[in-house]
Specification:
Length: 101
């Protein structure tokens, strides 16, 4: 799992590529937390367009990012979700908790 970060005007974009599974999620979560702590964004965008596979570990990462942004009085947007990852998110009902486009 690779994550690239772009920050501007208190907006933070994190672009994911690779498998967001049990093995990749732990390091990915650490990277997300460090990027959020460094940027202190008002808006965090998780771009999942490069995710080739996602399991429930990806759900945990998204929910942790949501919690982190709530602590900062910010918002989270998850975008460009591939079909397989979308099925995982839909099955868990994550769309009721997080904005997904």
């Amino acid at each position: 799992m690779e994550i690239s970060a772009k920050s501007a005007d208190r907006n933070l974009l994190l672009e994911f590529s690779g498998e967001l599974d049990h093995h990749g999620a732990r390091d990915a979560l650490r990277e997300v937390e460090m990027a959020v702590d460094a940027a202190l964004p008002k808006k965090l965008v998780l771009d999942l367009s490069g995710v080739t596979f996602m399991d429930s570990s990806g759900i945990a990462l998204i929910l942790r990012a949501q919690q982190r942004m709530q602590l900062l009085d910010g918002s989270l947007l998850v975008c460009n979700v591939p079909a397989q990852a979308k099925r995982v998110l839909d099955a868990a009902g994550i769309g009721r908790l997080v904005t997904i486009r």
